[in-house]
Amino acid sequence: MNQTFQARSLSAAPPSPAPVPAEAAARAGGLGRGALALLLSAHPAPALAVTVLITVLGVAAGRDVLGSCLVALAVLTGQLSVGWSNDRIDLARDTAAHRRDKPLVAGEVGMRSVSVAACAALLLCAPLSLANGAAAGGAHLIGVAAAWSYNLGVKRTRWSWLPYALAFGLLPAFLTLALPGHPWPAAWVMAAGALLGVGAHFTNVLPDIDADLAAGVRGLPQRQGRRRSRTVAALALLAASAALVLGPPGPPDATGWSGLAVTGALAVVLCLPPGTSPDSRLPFLATLGLAGTDIALLVARGTSLV
Predict the structure, then answer these.
(1) Are the CB atoms for 118 and 84 separated by under 8 Å?
(2) N or C: which terminus of the chain carries fewer CB neighbours within 10 A?
Protein backbone atom coordinates (compact mmCIF):
# COMPACT_ATOMS: atom_id res chain seq x y z
CA MET A 1 0.00 0.00 0.00
CA ASN A 2 2.81 2.37 0.84
CA GLN A 3 4.39 1.56 -2.48
CA THR A 4 1.09 2.33 -4.27
CA PHE A 5 0.72 5.65 -2.44
CA GLN A 6 4.29 6.59 -3.23
CA ALA A 7 3.79 5.74 -6.89
CA ARG A 8 0.62 7.87 -7.03
CA SER A 9 2.36 10.76 -5.26
CA LEU A 10 5.27 10.62 -7.64
CA SER A 11 2.99 10.50 -10.67
CA ALA A 12 0.94 13.44 -9.42
CA ALA A 13 3.92 15.68 -8.70
CA PRO A 14 4.63 18.13 -11.57
CA PRO A 15 7.98 17.58 -13.23
CA SER A 16 10.56 20.19 -12.33
CA PRO A 17 12.19 21.96 -15.28
CA ALA A 18 15.65 20.77 -16.07
CA PRO A 19 18.22 23.51 -15.52
CA VAL A 20 20.10 24.74 -18.57
CA PRO A 21 23.77 23.86 -18.07
CA ALA A 22 26.22 26.71 -18.17
CA GLU A 23 28.14 24.79 -20.81
CA ALA A 24 25.13 24.83 -23.16
CA ALA A 25 24.67 28.58 -22.75
CA ALA A 26 28.35 29.15 -23.40
CA ARG A 27 28.15 26.92 -26.47
CA ALA A 28 25.19 28.91 -27.79
CA GLY A 29 27.08 32.14 -27.27
CA GLY A 30 30.08 30.68 -29.05
CA LEU A 31 27.91 29.68 -32.02
CA GLY A 32 26.55 33.22 -32.19
CA ARG A 33 30.03 34.73 -32.18
CA GLY A 34 31.16 32.21 -34.78
CA ALA A 35 28.22 33.08 -37.06
CA LEU A 36 29.02 36.78 -36.73
CA ALA A 37 32.70 36.15 -37.49
CA LEU A 38 31.70 34.11 -40.55
CA LEU A 39 29.49 36.93 -41.77
CA LEU A 40 32.24 39.50 -41.28
CA SER A 41 34.57 37.31 -43.35
CA ALA A 42 32.31 37.89 -46.35
CA HIS A 43 32.96 41.67 -46.43
CA PRO A 44 29.25 42.35 -45.75
CA ALA A 45 29.31 46.15 -46.14
CA PRO A 46 30.40 46.31 -49.80
CA ALA A 47 28.38 43.16 -50.58
CA LEU A 48 25.21 44.77 -49.23
CA ALA A 49 25.98 48.10 -50.91
CA VAL A 50 26.41 46.49 -54.33
CA THR A 51 23.27 44.39 -53.84
CA VAL A 52 21.11 47.38 -52.90
CA LEU A 53 22.43 49.56 -55.73
CA ILE A 54 21.92 46.89 -58.40
CA THR A 55 18.45 46.02 -57.09
CA VAL A 56 17.39 49.68 -57.20
CA LEU A 57 18.75 49.94 -60.72
CA GLY A 58 16.81 46.79 -61.64
CA VAL A 59 13.58 48.40 -60.44
CA ALA A 60 14.38 51.50 -62.51
CA ALA A 61 15.02 49.27 -65.54
CA GLY A 62 11.54 47.78 -65.24
CA ARG A 63 11.99 44.57 -63.24
CA ASP A 64 8.84 43.56 -61.36
CA VAL A 65 8.71 42.54 -57.69
CA LEU A 66 9.64 38.90 -58.31
CA GLY A 67 12.36 39.88 -60.76
CA SER A 68 13.80 42.42 -58.35
CA CYS A 69 13.90 39.81 -55.58
CA LEU A 70 15.72 37.40 -57.89
CA VAL A 71 18.19 40.14 -58.78
CA ALA A 72 18.84 40.89 -55.12
CA LEU A 73 19.32 37.23 -54.15
CA ALA A 74 21.56 36.46 -57.12
CA VAL A 75 23.76 39.51 -56.58
CA LEU A 76 23.95 38.98 -52.81
CA THR A 77 24.96 35.32 -53.04
CA GLY A 78 27.52 36.15 -55.71
CA GLN A 79 29.00 38.95 -53.62
CA LEU A 80 29.13 36.77 -50.50
CA SER A 81 30.90 33.98 -52.38
CA VAL A 82 33.50 36.44 -53.66
CA GLY A 83 34.02 37.94 -50.20
CA TRP A 84 34.45 34.59 -48.47
CA SER A 85 36.76 33.26 -51.18
CA ASN A 86 38.87 36.41 -50.90
CA ASP A 87 39.52 35.96 -47.18
CA ARG A 88 40.12 32.22 -47.52
CA ILE A 89 42.54 32.52 -50.45
CA ASP A 90 44.40 35.43 -48.82
CA LEU A 91 44.69 33.79 -45.40
CA ALA A 92 48.46 33.23 -45.57
CA ARG A 93 49.11 36.75 -46.82
CA ASP A 94 46.78 38.32 -44.25
CA THR A 95 48.42 36.31 -41.48
CA ALA A 96 51.89 37.44 -42.54
CA ALA A 97 50.62 41.03 -42.56
CA HIS A 98 49.15 40.57 -39.05
CA ARG A 99 45.64 41.49 -40.22
CA ARG A 100 43.93 40.91 -36.88
CA ASP A 101 40.86 42.69 -38.24
CA LYS A 102 40.25 39.58 -40.35
CA PRO A 103 38.20 36.94 -38.45
CA LEU A 104 40.15 34.11 -40.10
CA VAL A 105 43.49 35.56 -39.01
CA ALA A 106 42.16 36.22 -35.50
CA GLY A 107 40.99 32.59 -35.22
CA GLU A 108 37.37 33.62 -34.72
CA VAL A 109 36.19 31.37 -37.55
CA GLY A 110 37.68 28.24 -39.11
CA MET A 111 39.08 27.79 -42.61
CA ARG A 112 36.66 24.96 -43.34
CA SER A 113 33.65 27.10 -42.39
CA VAL A 114 34.69 29.91 -44.72
CA SER A 115 35.47 27.49 -47.56
CA VAL A 116 32.10 25.76 -47.21
CA ALA A 117 30.29 29.10 -47.02
CA ALA A 118 32.02 30.38 -50.18
CA CYS A 119 31.17 27.24 -52.14
CA ALA A 120 27.59 27.14 -50.85
CA ALA A 121 27.00 30.78 -51.80
CA LEU A 122 28.44 30.14 -55.26
CA LEU A 123 26.22 27.08 -55.74
CA LEU A 124 23.18 29.13 -54.73
CA CYS A 125 24.20 31.97 -57.01
CA ALA A 126 24.06 29.80 -60.15
CA PRO A 127 20.35 28.81 -60.08
CA LEU A 128 19.31 32.20 -58.69
CA SER A 129 21.09 33.91 -61.58
CA LEU A 130 19.67 31.55 -64.22
CA ALA A 131 16.17 32.05 -62.76
CA ASN A 132 16.38 35.51 -64.35
CA GLY A 133 16.76 33.85 -67.76
CA ALA A 134 19.60 32.04 -69.49
CA ALA A 135 21.12 35.12 -71.12
CA ALA A 136 20.78 37.36 -68.07
CA GLY A 137 21.98 34.65 -65.70
CA GLY A 138 24.91 33.84 -67.96
CA ALA A 139 25.99 37.50 -67.95
CA HIS A 140 25.89 37.62 -64.17
CA LEU A 141 27.76 34.34 -63.74
CA ILE A 142 30.50 35.53 -66.11
CA GLY A 143 30.87 38.56 -63.84
CA VAL A 144 31.04 36.39 -60.73
CA ALA A 145 33.60 34.13 -62.42
CA ALA A 146 35.67 37.22 -63.23
CA ALA A 147 35.60 38.25 -59.57
CA TRP A 148 36.73 34.76 -58.51
CA SER A 149 39.53 34.89 -61.09
CA TYR A 150 40.71 38.11 -59.45
CA ASN A 151 40.87 36.38 -56.07
CA LEU A 152 42.62 33.34 -57.55
CA GLY A 153 45.55 35.26 -58.95
CA VAL A 154 44.71 37.89 -61.55
CA LYS A 155 45.05 40.55 -58.86
CA ARG A 156 48.79 39.82 -58.82
CA THR A 157 49.19 40.86 -62.45
CA ARG A 158 49.02 44.09 -64.42
CA TRP A 159 45.59 42.90 -65.61
CA SER A 160 44.10 43.21 -62.13
CA TRP A 161 41.64 45.88 -63.33
CA LEU A 162 40.08 43.62 -66.00
CA PRO A 163 37.89 41.41 -63.74
CA TYR A 164 36.40 44.54 -62.15
CA ALA A 165 35.72 46.14 -65.54
CA LEU A 166 34.12 42.93 -66.83
CA ALA A 167 32.01 42.24 -63.75
CA PHE A 168 30.69 45.78 -63.36
CA GLY A 169 30.26 46.25 -67.10
CA LEU A 170 28.06 43.15 -67.34
CA LEU A 171 25.76 44.05 -64.43
CA PRO A 172 23.47 46.23 -66.62
CA ALA A 173 23.21 43.31 -69.07
CA PHE A 174 22.12 41.09 -66.18
CA LEU A 175 19.20 43.48 -65.67
CA THR A 176 18.13 44.21 -69.25
CA LEU A 177 18.53 40.73 -70.74
CA ALA A 178 15.78 39.56 -68.40
CA LEU A 179 13.31 42.12 -69.81
CA PRO A 180 10.85 41.26 -72.61
CA GLY A 181 12.75 40.92 -75.87
CA HIS A 182 16.03 40.36 -73.98
CA PRO A 183 17.65 43.64 -75.09
CA TRP A 184 21.28 44.47 -74.46
CA PRO A 185 21.92 47.65 -72.49
CA ALA A 186 23.08 50.78 -74.25
CA ALA A 187 26.81 51.05 -74.86
CA TRP A 188 27.12 54.10 -72.60
CA VAL A 189 25.60 52.16 -69.70
CA MET A 190 28.04 49.28 -70.03
CA ALA A 191 30.94 51.73 -70.45
CA ALA A 192 29.89 53.54 -67.28
CA GLY A 193 29.69 50.23 -65.40
CA ALA A 194 33.14 49.18 -66.55
CA LEU A 195 34.62 52.56 -65.56
CA LEU A 196 32.96 52.31 -62.16
CA GLY A 197 34.54 48.90 -61.72
CA VAL A 198 38.01 50.17 -62.60
CA GLY A 199 37.62 53.11 -60.24
CA ALA A 200 36.38 50.84 -57.46
CA HIS A 201 39.38 48.53 -57.96
CA PHE A 202 41.96 51.29 -57.69
CA THR A 203 40.18 52.86 -54.73
CA ASN A 204 39.74 49.63 -52.80
CA VAL A 205 43.43 48.75 -53.15
CA LEU A 206 44.73 52.13 -51.96
CA PRO A 207 44.91 51.44 -48.18
CA ASP A 208 46.73 48.11 -48.69
CA ILE A 209 49.29 49.02 -51.37
CA ASP A 210 52.32 48.84 -49.06
CA ALA A 211 51.24 45.54 -47.50
CA ASP A 212 50.44 44.12 -50.95
CA LEU A 213 53.87 45.02 -52.29
CA ALA A 214 55.52 43.42 -49.26
CA ALA A 215 53.53 40.24 -49.96
CA GLY A 216 54.46 40.18 -53.65
CA VAL A 217 51.04 41.30 -54.94
CA ARG A 218 51.79 43.51 -57.94
CA GLY A 219 48.51 44.39 -59.58
CA LEU A 220 48.24 47.51 -61.70
CA PRO A 221 47.49 49.86 -58.75
CA GLN A 222 50.49 48.52 -56.82
CA ARG A 223 52.71 49.06 -59.85
CA GLN A 224 51.44 52.62 -60.24
CA GLY A 225 51.83 53.59 -56.58
CA ARG A 226 49.42 55.30 -54.21
CA ARG A 227 49.49 58.79 -55.76
CA ARG A 228 48.94 57.69 -59.36
CA SER A 229 46.34 55.12 -58.32
CA ARG A 230 44.36 57.80 -56.53
CA THR A 231 44.38 59.91 -59.70
CA VAL A 232 43.38 56.96 -61.92
CA ALA A 233 40.51 56.12 -59.56
CA ALA A 234 39.23 59.70 -59.60
CA LEU A 235 39.43 59.97 -63.41
CA ALA A 236 37.72 56.61 -63.97
CA LEU A 237 34.86 57.40 -61.62
CA LEU A 238 34.39 60.88 -63.02
CA ALA A 239 34.37 59.45 -66.55
CA ALA A 240 31.70 56.97 -65.48
CA SER A 241 29.57 59.81 -64.17
CA ALA A 242 30.07 61.78 -67.37
CA ALA A 243 28.96 58.76 -69.41
CA LEU A 244 25.80 58.45 -67.34
CA VAL A 245 24.92 62.14 -67.65
CA LEU A 246 26.03 62.81 -71.24
CA GLY A 247 25.43 59.38 -72.77
CA PRO A 248 21.61 59.28 -72.96
CA PRO A 249 19.91 60.96 -75.95
CA GLY A 250 19.07 64.62 -75.51
CA PRO A 251 20.72 67.35 -73.46
CA PRO A 252 21.20 66.81 -69.71
CA ASP A 253 18.74 68.58 -67.42
CA ALA A 254 19.49 70.42 -64.19
CA THR A 255 19.42 67.15 -62.25
CA GLY A 256 22.06 65.68 -64.52
CA TRP A 257 24.35 68.66 -64.24
CA SER A 258 23.90 68.73 -60.47
CA GLY A 259 24.75 65.05 -60.23
CA LEU A 260 27.85 65.58 -62.34
CA ALA A 261 28.90 68.41 -60.02
CA VAL A 262 28.48 66.16 -56.97
CA THR A 263 30.46 63.34 -58.53
CA GLY A 264 33.14 65.83 -59.55
CA ALA A 265 33.45 66.97 -55.95
CA LEU A 266 33.70 63.36 -54.75
CA ALA A 267 36.36 62.70 -57.37
CA VAL A 268 38.34 65.60 -55.97
CA VAL A 269 38.12 63.93 -52.54
CA LEU A 270 39.81 60.87 -54.02
CA CYS A 271 42.73 63.00 -55.19
CA LEU A 272 43.29 64.58 -51.78
CA PRO A 273 45.94 63.13 -49.43
CA PRO A 274 44.42 60.60 -47.00
CA GLY A 275 45.32 62.76 -44.00
CA THR A 276 47.10 61.34 -40.99
CA SER A 277 46.51 57.69 -41.91
CA PRO A 278 47.55 56.06 -45.19
CA ASP A 279 45.00 53.34 -44.42
CA SER A 280 42.08 55.77 -44.62
CA ARG A 281 38.88 54.26 -45.99
CA LEU A 282 37.62 57.67 -47.12
CA PRO A 283 38.43 56.99 -50.80
CA PHE A 284 36.42 53.76 -50.71
CA LEU A 285 33.48 55.55 -49.07
CA ALA A 286 33.72 58.22 -51.75
CA THR A 287 33.52 55.44 -54.34
CA LEU A 288 30.29 54.19 -52.82
CA GLY A 289 29.01 57.76 -52.80
CA LEU A 290 29.84 58.10 -56.48
CA ALA A 291 28.09 54.84 -57.33
CA GLY A 292 25.04 55.84 -55.28
CA THR A 293 24.89 59.23 -57.01
CA ASP A 294 25.10 57.56 -60.41
CA ILE A 295 22.21 55.23 -59.60
CA ALA A 296 20.21 58.18 -58.27
CA LEU A 297 20.80 59.99 -61.56
CA LEU A 298 19.41 57.06 -63.51
CA VAL A 299 16.35 56.76 -61.28
CA ALA A 300 15.64 60.51 -61.16
CA ARG A 301 15.89 60.94 -64.94
CA GLY A 302 13.89 57.80 -65.62
CA THR A 303 16.51 56.85 -68.20
CA SER A 304 16.15 53.47 -69.85
CA LEU A 305 19.19 51.24 -69.80
CA VAL A 306 18.55 50.02 -73.36
Answers:
(1) yes
(2) N
